[in-house]
Amino acid sequence: MSFLRSVRPSNLIILTALPFIIYLFASSGDYQRSLRAILGVENGSSAFVPGFLALLVAFGSGVAVLVFSRAKAPRPRLALAAAVLNLAAAATVLLSDAVHPYLASVVANAVDSFTSDLVVKGLSPRQLTDAADMTLRGIEAVLFPAYFALTLLGFMLFFGAGKASTPESIMRRVGALSIGLVNGAGLLFILFIAHIAFAAGVATTVRAAIAAYLLAAIIGLIWVGLLQLHYTARTSIIFALATLGLTLVAAWFLLQPRTAYVLAGRLDGTVAIVSNTPSGLKGAVRFGQYPGAPGEEAAVRTFLGPAEAVAAMEKNEVTAALLPSAAVPGGLPLLWETAALNDRDRAAGITFAVLAIILGLLTFGGYLHRRHPLAIGSEFVVDTIRGIPMLVIVLYVGLPLSGALKDATQGVLDPPNLMRGIVAMALAYSAYLAEIFRSGINAIPIGQIEAARSIGLNRWQTARLVVLPQAFRIIIPPLGNELIAILKDTSLLSILSIRDITQRMREFQSASFLPFAPYNSAAIFYIFLTLAAASLINMIERKYDIKHR
């Protein structure tokens, strides 16, 4: 009975309905196939489970040693048991071949199957070539013994120093650092980076939610930190000078020499356009937005350079061409002459001009209201983001903004769709988390802040030691609510073709034409995920609820 009282009422209802849910999935082939597709279970992925579990137990028990050895609540017996379990799992990883299939799957899914020579072309799920598999085995022959040796050495230093020295001894610190780095990095890799073939859909959803939540919390703290900045006359002068500097830089880019272009030929066919022609001129020619243009849209064809475009005109492949004036051959009728700034200088000039306008407005607003310009900017960003629908933010960041970033960096920065979705959700939720953080900070009595300053603490020490610990206890419930919300809203990332639970549900429903099984399976699984998150939050609330102690 005590166990039932400790269970949340909502979870108790799910536990009551759990036998029916298990029976539904066990007795219906449609629901089994739906759940398999939604979870992202690949063919033959059962062979990867033992290796994943071996690494999970090894890394998890290594981290547990440090958790159970904390000075605040030491549990030496549990720490020793975790160390024994870690060594047993590490020995299993070293002596057995169970981990190799899993690591082979991770490597095969970490490379581009179209361009990499490490995977066999045309196979699904991906499989390493024989040469790549032998190379991986050679790496494992060095990596696994090194992990076992480092873990064993770390335990010897950690537990050996604890017997004869103080807990703060250098040897104990070195041992803890070795255990923490090796096992922590391994645990982080297999849980948040490595491909999980037997639960790819779930891994994508959970990883996206956690990454977006943590990034949103960091950005939200930045917004709150900017709100706490104080106004000074020196600040206005510095920002005014920065505005002037941005204006001069924008003017320098926008006043660069223009390139003369000529549209020559006849308009009764296709028009040739050379690469790197300003986009404004391309649109003007294509849609007839120049003097004397016909009323209908013109067919255009892009060529690498003026020489290729002129050669195409000589072969009658095109009837006109938009070329730099220096490259126009003689004897052609000139239809339009103009001059334009190249796209690179134009984009840079517009960017700096926009930044100058924004910074100028913030500086002027800060001067009027005697507030720091960055505080006004933070307030504006938070209010603006909260007014834009989540789907619009995901689409904007995932498509045009990322495309513009790729073009501006000449393809150097081209984040994958999952990263774009994570950044979009983090930006969207950072505004809500910022308001939660601000409310928690404002709930701390001003007297505590004054007392902290009276004993010599600076602003950073006051925030870290006095304000934030108390504010965290206050904002745990709303923070938990945002975690559940962001876990559900990861379904919006399917619009970017990210193969999370929702995207896999849509793919399976389109292929199977089942009316209810895919949607019911996805809904039930989302319920279990959110209830698990709610239980975790409830546990944290009980741990930090000091009012009832």
Describe the overall structure.
This protein is mainly alpha-helical and 549 residues long. It is 69% helix and 5% strand. It contains 20 helices and five strands. It has helices at 2-6, 9-27, 29-39, 49-68, 76-95, 99-110, 130-164, 170-192, 200-227, 233-254, 279-286, 306-314, 343-369, 373-386, 390-408, 417-442, 446-454, 459-489, 501-512, 517-544; strands spanning 259-265, 271-274, 300-303, 320-324, 334-340. It has a five-stranded mixed sheet, sandwiched between helices. Helix 11 (279-286) links the parallel strand 2 (271-274) and strand 3. The longest helix has 35 residues, at 130-164. It is globular, with a radius of gyration of 31 Å. The mean pLDDT is 87. Belongs to the binding-protein-dependent transport system permease family. HisMQ subfamily. Keywords: Amino-acid transport, Membrane, Plasmid, Transmembrane, Transmembrane helix, Transport. Residues 342-537 form the ABC transmembrane type-1 domain. It holds the Pfam family BPD_transp_1. Part of the binding-protein-dependent transport system for glutamine; probably responsible for the translocation of the substrate across the membrane.
Brief overview:
It comes from Sinorhizobium kummerowiae. By secondary structure, this protein is mainly alpha-helical. The protein is 69% helix and 5% strand.
Rg is 31 Å
State the helix count.
Answer: 20
Give the neighbour order of strands across the main sheet.
3-2-4-1-5
Percent in helix: 55-70%
The ordered string of helix (H) and strand (E) elements is HHHHHHHHHHEEHEHEEHHHHHHHH
Secondary structure: number of strands? 5
Mean pLDDT: 87
Give start-end ranges of low-pLDDT stretches.
none
Please give the largest β-sheet. 5 strands, mixed
Report the end-to-end length measured between terminal Cα atoms. Answer: 23 Å
What class would the helix/strand composition place it in? mainly alpha
Tell me the overall shape: globular
β-sheet strand percentage: under 5%
